[in-house]
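One thing: mind reviewing this one?
=====
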Amino acid sequence: MEFDYEETVINLEEIIAEIESGELTLEEVFEKFSLAVEDLQKCEAFLTQGQEQMNLLIETLDDDF
């Protein structure tokens, strides 16, 4: 399954809204928070990888000039 950054961000927003609603039990809040942390870690890894790829491309451009 391929990682979808935009879909993950939407999922995070939904989790935050659920937590902020005050309608979850404390146990559900902990569970949702745990899922949100996992999603945030995936997003961070995705963005870091993208940044590294861009840096390599920029270095390649710099070498050409």
Notes: The CA atoms of residues 22 and 29 lie 9 Å apart. Helices lie at 5-21, 26-64.
